[in-house]
Fold RCC1 and BTB domain containing protein 2.
Amino acid sequence: KPPFIPLFFRVCGKMTHINSMLDVGKWPVFALLPPEELRLIRQACVFGSAANEAIYVTVSDEVFALGTNCSGCLGLGDTQSTIEPRRIDILCGKKIVSLSYGTGPHVVIATADGEVYSWGHNGYSQLGNGTTNHGLTPALVSTNLIGKRVTEVACGSHHTIALTTEGEVYAWGYNNSGQVGSGSTANQPSPRRVSSCLQNKVVVNIACGQLCSMAVLDNGETYGWGYNCNGQLGLGNNGNQQTPCRIAALQGINIVQVACGYAHTLALTDEGFIYSWGANSYGQLGTGNKSNQAVPTLINMEKERMVEVAACHTSHTSVAKTQSGQVLMWGQCRGQAVAYPHLTHFTSTDDVFACFATPAVTWHLLSVDGDDYLTVAQSLKREFDSPEISDLKFLVDGKCIHVHKALLKIRCEHFRALLNETDEETIEIHQFSYLVYRAFLEYLYTDTINLPPEDAIGLLDLSTYYRESRLKRLCQETIKRGITEENAITLFSAAVKYEARDLEEFCFKFCVNHLTAVTQTQAFADMDHDLLKNFISKASRYGAFKN
């Protein structure tokens, strides 16, 4: 199995996807914006029953809205439609980290400061302000959230849930099927903590279908509550749930991301597999038929590992992305029912929703890298290993790597000392491979590492040797993302050898969670005797061998 390298990362607790090639002009609502204005957009969201509303954030952190403005969902203080972008003054400078919307529509955001703002349709108290009056301008949601930092928000049709830095979930709004998780079906006018089975648990990912809610815990367990007549909670039945229920069928399977469609759910595992359940009238479960499934069903992907799943509560479309960047879609695709995952030419899951979803909304807050100028970091990255203006080269395994003395002195204490003692224009390196040493030098230019997890072990060795603590942490994170049942023991052994405590604990827990498969690998058979003895002892204390 190839290593699992997720393409999403966490910004203030929210899963955010960055794609420098994303073209927001693919959404018709942006068609009238001039190219110079489109280039300034850094975040965007398209929503509404006909995808005729949009909110976007510019490079200077100004927030604008345009479209039909149903129920005042643009937050402009009125219900007038606007074909020209108008600025939402109260949101400018707030640094939005998460945005979601309902079908009213209502809109909810979380800011970098952990505040929550809401506006738009409020017939079911989905704005969380204690009333049922529509909100024409963004208003702070404060009840029961004072002192809490919200990192992610998710909206169903007419309800809202929010995730805090502590892993708590709060919910409010429409509750006819128990989607607020309060234990009743009475609408919830203001934020209320979802406790019950989630008490003392840490939630790391949330999602909403039209009338249901889902949560993933830090240990990979998945819980669902709310409407369940199509089996979208994955509980093996069709009964609504008024409080969170663990999906027992996923026992022993570690989920890292969930995405909800109108009445179906997709879940991505830590090994890059996808499970689906719920409604299937358009083939949105990817099982090859149109039969609903009340329990999670593994989708047969004959492709490589998956790194992202995408769905939206307004549609019946399902999308996934592979590790090499291929995008597959299935379900309702421009009116057609596609029952198997279909390979597209797209490079982003967002493109599928722009071109094939009905309506053509965005499934999450888009984040767009600008390409109108080169930053200092981009300029340095471009000059790495370029002989044109370099003044030093390293010779490793007979290959040259071109660099700049001044930058190496600034970035690394080892090189500052070394280069102050020598005027050599070529330095030979023997203790590390070309691949590892080039990755190290590239890191000094880019602050990132570009290596497969197995090769990152060599870079972990180098970072320990050169006492580069930040590089050591990045190596550990890279190795974590590539862990599999086959290589888990190898990575665990490397973590012990290089005293990477956090990585050691991560690999150990993965091995315990996948103990049967891990103990059948060749790496386990070849494990150092003392290390094996310590592993078994620790696993026993961890309870791994209890029936």
User: Anything to note?
Assistant: The radius of gyration is 25 Å. The chain has three domains: 19-195, 200-372, 376-542.
